[in-house]
């Protein structure tokens, strides 16, 4: 128990430190960027400015995805606890959503107050005793964590920073193993940032433009679904016309046969 409390306390201190550092870096980002750009040769300055801009977009997208993840988990927990009849489902859902900033340990800590409420107060309408309700709550949180680790986190954060889900899962696992909670938390944006830096370096070494032009979709081309529907519609019209032609030919033959003596 003491070890768990110590881990929670150290994780909270670490999160506060990272949060305050992020605020400081955000407020001072322009000054640091100007100092960095001024120290570079003038010929490379436009490229470095663009590279820093792309890296900044990666981190903004990551934090936006993290907020989205917190909202999703909070809503899922609120709905699940409401179905189970746990009192204070909204407050417990807010706790679960906020603790999503602490990978791996956050969901475990969020389970504790929900289990305590289930043991002390029981369900508001399910005909089960408090102990059974606590087991149901534990099972529900385990299910949410499994869905979160395998589906929600890779998709939400992966789409935010444009990384495949497998890369996000592998990065969180490796980051958590090598650098603990902070490594798991920052693995996704660090991978995306490294992708931008390595892509820039590779293209410079190959003598290519440092930043590939964006792919603009052909607005004149119809989407695949419309192309498929257009082909099907054309075939239906052709079949309909062929049937009409055949019916007209049969009618002409009958009229000619009727005209003969």
Brief write-up:
The protein has eight helices and no strands. By secondary structure, the chain is mainly α.
Envelope shape:
flat
Overall pLDDT level: 77
Contiguous helical run count: 8
Q: From the structure provided, what is the oligomeric state, counting identical versus distinct chains?
A: single chain
Estimated share of beta-strand residues: under 5%
Rg for CA atoms: 30 Å
Strand runs, count: 0
Structural class: mainly alpha
Helical content stands at over 70%
Largest beta-sheet details: none
**Topology order in helix (H) and strand (E) letters:** HHHHHHHH
Task: Draw up the topology in text.
Layout: H1 2-27, H2 29-38, H3 45-84, H4 89-98, H5 105-121, H6 130-161, H7 165-205, H8 224-259
Provide structural commentary.
With 261 residues, this protein is mainly α. It has a domain at 50-205. 81% of the residues lie in helices and 0% in strands. The protein has helices at 2-27, 29-38, 45-84, 89-98, 105-121, 130-161, 165-205, 224-259. α5 (105-121) runs antiparallel to α6. The longest helix has 41 residues, at 165-205. The model has no long low-confidence stretch (mean pLDDT 77).
């Amino acid at each position: 128990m003491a070890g768990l409390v110590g881990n929670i306390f150290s994780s909270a201190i670490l999160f506060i430190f990272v949060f305050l550092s992020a605020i400081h870096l955000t407020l001072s980002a322009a000054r640091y960027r100007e100092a960095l750009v001024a120290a570079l040769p003038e010929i490379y300055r436009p490229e470095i400015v663009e590279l820093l801009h792309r890296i900044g977009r990666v981190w903004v997208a990551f934090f936006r995805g993290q907020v989205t993840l917190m909202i999703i988990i909070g809503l899922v927990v609120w709905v699940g606890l409401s179905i189970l009849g746990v009192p204070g489902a909204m407050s417990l859902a807010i706790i679960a959503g906020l603790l999503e900033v602490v990978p791996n340990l956050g969901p475990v800590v969020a389970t504790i107050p929900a289990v305590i409420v289930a043991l002390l107060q029981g369900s508001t309408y399910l005909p089960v005793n408090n102990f059974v309700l606590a087991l149901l709550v534990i099972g529900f949180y385990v299910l949410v964590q499994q869905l979160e680790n395998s589906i929600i986190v890779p998709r939400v954060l992966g789409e935010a920073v444009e990384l495949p889900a497998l890369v996000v899962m592998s990065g969180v696992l490796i980051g958590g193993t090598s650098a603990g909670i902070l490594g798991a938390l920052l693995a996704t944006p660090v991978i995306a940032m490294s992708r931008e830096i390595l892509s820039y370096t590779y293209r410079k070494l190959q003598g290519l433009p440092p930043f590939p032009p964006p792919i603009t979709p052909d607005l004149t081309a119809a989407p695949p679904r419309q192309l498929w529907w257009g082909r099907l519609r054309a075939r239906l019209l052709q079949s309909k016309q062929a049937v009409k032609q055949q019916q007209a030919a049969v009618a002409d033959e009958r009229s000619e046969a009727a005209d003969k003596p």
